[in-house]
From TrEMBL:
UniProt cross-references to Gene3D superfamilies, sorted A to Z: Tetratricopeptide repeat domain (1.25.40.10)
Endoplasmic reticulum is among the record's keywords: yes
Family per record: Belongs to the EMC2 family.
The protein's role, per its UniProt record: Part of the endoplasmic reticulum membrane protein complex (EMC) that enables the energy-independent insertion into endoplasmic reticulum membranes of newly synthesized membrane proteins.
Protein name: ER membrane protein complex subunit 2
Source organism per UniProt: Sarcoptes scabiei
Subunit structure: Component of the ER membrane protein complex (EMC).
Chain ranges of the EMC2 TPR-like domain: 89-212
Subcellular location field: Endoplasmic reticulum membrane
Keywords of the record: Endoplasmic reticulum, Membrane, Repeat, TPR repeat
Any GO CC annotation of this UniProt entry: EMC complex
């Protein structure tokens, strides 16, 4: 199941059976994907502990790492306590406790020293690399985090989460062309994910050259083809088409106008279908229609 098709983590998790949740947690472990918010939501909402059998211990470790990402101290401490009770002499659990203590207390420099030591002894361990990158980001060492991600992706090129993270860091640094390259890699590996097309279009819209605006229009259009109800893509299509129409002095002007007006109509239909005959929401619908009309280009 695709979490991107749902409005929130809780909505997605509520749609899962316990078997689906267990399989998903296993897949994320195999793929080295953290998905921290979803991992926490699954653990807290579905009461998997009794269902998992002995697998619950590796899931507890996964939940603990997710909680560390989210700075959820109570959940980290709960996971560690259960792991310690089950494995009182485990070096792995002791190491996890030590790292959690450093991270939760924001002793980032000490944590980085320890992660560097661990990586030196186990360079193929992707989890260690990603924990180090998470520490660099938390410590606001953006340049170092970018450098570490670039090195990491040389060995783990299929890690979609890492490409997304690198793109967002480049955006923070206003290096939009490099961010676009990262999202291009994601689109190549998963051309049917509308979110990647939307993100690429947004980056091109931000670059704001005639060529990049045409790319933005094309990728917003493709995102709408992949998911016709995507408001994000439709609004992006309106803004991009308006921009192109206002700067165009040739026959394409009418095409951009029609595209913008079509997107406005699609958004209006989506809201009307959502609100339906609810009389209490009609004022809201009229307000939405008025706003959409302002966005539309007058002929």
């Amino acid at each position: 199941m695709d979490p991107n098709k749902f409005q929130s983590a809780s909505e997605f998790v509520s749609s899962l059976s316990k078997k689906e949740a267990r399989d998903l947690l296993m897949k994320w472990r195999d793929d080295n994907a953290r998905n921290s918010e979803l991992v926490r939501e699954i653990w807290q909402s579905l009461n998997l502990s009794s269902y998992l059998g002995d697998e619950k211990w590796v899931v507890l470790e996964q939940v603990c790492l997710a909680a560390m990402d989210l700075q959820d101290r109570p959940l980290v401490e709960s996971c560690l306590e259960r792991l310690k009770d089950k494995f009182p002499n485990s070096g792995r659990v002791k190491r996890l406790r030590m790292l959690a203590k450093l991270e939760l207390n924001q002793r980032y420099d000490d944590a980085l020293i320890k992660y560097n030591e661990l990586i030196a002894n186990d360079e193929a361990n992707s989890m260690l690399h990603k924990r180090k990158i998470a520490i660099l980001i938390a410590a606001k060492k953006t340049t170092a985090a970018i450098r570490a991600l670039c090195e990491y992706l040389k060995s783990f090129m299929n890690d979609h989460e890492a490409w997304i993270q690198l793109a967002e860091l480049y955006i923070q640094e206003q290096e939009y062309s490099k961010a676009a390259f990262c999202v291009e890699e994601l689109i190549l590996s998963n051309p049917h994910n509308h979110l990647y097309h939307e993100r690429y279009a947004e980056i091109q819209y931000t670059i704001n050259t005639p060529e990049s605006l045409e790319l933005a229009r094309a990728y917003f259009s493709q995102a709408v083809r992949l998911k016709p109800t995507s408001l994000r893509a439709l609004y992006g299509l309106i803004l991009t088409s308006n921009h192109l129409a206002n700067s165009s002095k040739n026959s394409k002007n009418k095409k951009y106008q029609r595209l913008s007006q079509w997107a406005v109509q699609q958004i209006s239909m989506i809201y009307k279908n959502t609100i339906g005959d609810n009389a209490e929401q009609q004022d809201l619908l009229e307000s939405i229609d008025s706003t959409l009309e302002e966005l539309s280009i007058a002929n």
